[in-house]
Design goal:
single chain; 226 residues; mainly alpha; three-stranded mixed sheet
Length: 226
């Protein structure tokens, strides 16, 4: 909730970076979604091949709605790829599909940061729904303890964002290793894949900066109301 007061200024640098990151991922995706891979592998083909090479034949691949809605669901052990990625044979499609398989590999290998992130999911789910209730009630009713509860809950969200960074970076690294190692993309195409995944990683960095800035803002509000 971006309600305005003087502390809103704390958010401005992070919001600018976030806007740049969103522009970067959209423009990069548009570019590399129009450049098709020489071997014609679709996102589904890439995901299936990498899963098989890593002995993860129990992981399913499904098509899902939306654009850039691709994700791995560890609860159902399913990789869900958006239509353009699932059936597309562009460099972007191959890169995104390989990235999502990277998350499946992380779970299979018990990659520590993703284990920590999964443990924080209940905290984030509760905090995202209730943090602003505590903060707003605390501010309007002049009850500092309620604001502090909101700050603590939001700190959990910030921690989740921070832990997400190594998870996403590692998934991209695994994606590039698999794409190159299994010779799915040429050397020239790998350059595009790296740019695509770097642009995606930038959005997570931006989201983390926004979350940290919002936490600093909450701390400023909490200290001002004491």
């Amino acid at each position: 909730m971006f309600f305005y007061d003087s502390t809103f200024l704390i958010l401005i640098p992070a919001l600018i970076i976030s806007a740049v990151a969103q522009f970067k991922i959209k423009s990069t995706y548009q570019k590399y979604s129009r450049i098709y891979s020489e071997k014609g592998f679709t996102g589904y083909d890439v995901a299936k091949a990498i899963l098989q090479e890593n002995n993860l034949t129990n992981v399913k691949i499904e098509e899902t709605r939306g654009k850039l809605s691709d994700h791995y669901d560890p609860r159902s052990n399913i990789i869900r790829l958006s239509r353009d990625v699932y059936s597309g044979s562009s460099i972007a499609s191959c890169s995104i599909a390989a990235h999502e398989v990277g998350h499946a590999i992380q779970h299979d290998k018990n990659y520590f940061p993703i284990t920590v992130r999964d443990m924080l999911v209940p905290v984030v789910n509760f905090g995202s729904k209730s943090v602003w209730i505590f903060v707003m009630l605390g501010l309007f009713l002049s009850i500092p303890s309620l604001v502090q509860v909101g700050v603590i809950l939001f700190a959990g969200i910030v921690l989740f964002q921070i832990v997400t960074l190594p998870v996403e970076f590692n998934a991209s690294r695994r994606a590039l290793v698999n794409l190159e190692g299994f010779n799915m993309l040429s050397n020239e195409e790998m350059v595009g894949a790296k740019k695509m995944l770097r642009a995606a990683a930038f959005t997570y960095v931006a989201a983390t900066l926004v979350a940290i800035s919002q936490l600093l803002r909450l701390l400023a509000l909490s200290n001002r109301r004491r």
